[in-house]
Amino acid sequence: MNLNRNKFLFFAYCLALLMTVIGACKTINSGGHSKAKHPEEKLGWKLGTQAYTFNRYTFFDAVAKADSCNLSYIEAYPGQELGGDIPGRMDYNMDPDKRVKILNLLKARNVKMVGFGVVGADSEADWIKIFEFSKAMGVETITSEPNEKDLQLLADLCDKYDINLAIHNHPNPSHYWNPDIVLNAIKGKSNRLGLCADIGHWLRSGLDPVESLQKANGHVLHLHMKDLNAKSENAHDVHWGKGVANMDAIIKELKKQRFKGVISAEYEYNWDHNRADVAQSVTNFRESFMKP
Question: Where does the signal sequence lie (predicted)?
């Protein structure tokens, strides 16, 4: 009896050890990162990049650059050449086989496509195609600057597909340049309809990013994060924390609002060689602004 009991205990020990190893492998394969290296995830934030940052390259070049910057998420934009031996461009009309190929290549890089935009449509049929494409690709938030007449349709589609639509702001005089305009347009509609706060474009429009975030409290679904060298329409991107955006106050406000969602790094300067700029901004973000 003792011999059998010892065998049982040894088997149980080996099984427990095996499960520990499997768990560790799953952690590595699911992204290869820890909360210590990605402190923003403790807050429910997903730090990634807008592929438009790397628009001089293919989508899969952008994915590789995101991975090299220690980022696990990407927001695709329509029209970018795909690359990765996949012909064509990022397009919500692409066939299912091509979608699967893209998802497989993303999985191999441990990068998830969590956003799509800035994208729009002129008909209900095309909006449905955008939502169906986004659902198939695992997208959480579509970024757009839609016609206000379509907002109820989009609110209904958001609820049907369980996908957010975040209204993006280009600088004044674009229609949605001021958060007051967006908030008035979405009032009384689905909670999945909200803002994609483009920090840099608020600065270019003469708006204070912190005050704008405070106005939009509870409606910020997605961010295009930038820091600029000046509060001017002609300003350019600089490393996060080195410009006029007041990054520390922005992060504190997002924490205060209990923001949950994707923060897309967008660096629209030094276009041909900006990977190092994004990497430095990510490092600044995690080391300087993620302290308790």
Answer: 1-24
Q: What is the CA radius of gyration of the chain?
A: 21
Beta carbons of 47 and 285 less than 8 angstroms apart: yes
Residues 285 and 268 sit within 8 Å (Cβ to Cβ): no
Question: What pTM was estimated for this model as a whole?
Answer: 0.88
Helices in the chain by DSSP H: which ranges?
Answer: 2-29, 59-68, 96-108, 124-137, 151-161, 179-186, 199-204, 209-215, 247-256, 275-288
How do the domains of the chain map onto residue ranges?
1-30, 37-288
- Specify whether the CB–CB gap between 279 and 68 falls below 8 A: yes
pLDDT digits (tens, 9 = 90+) for 193-239: 999 999 999 999 999 999 999 999 999 999 999 999 999 999 999 99
End-to-end CA distance of the chain: 55
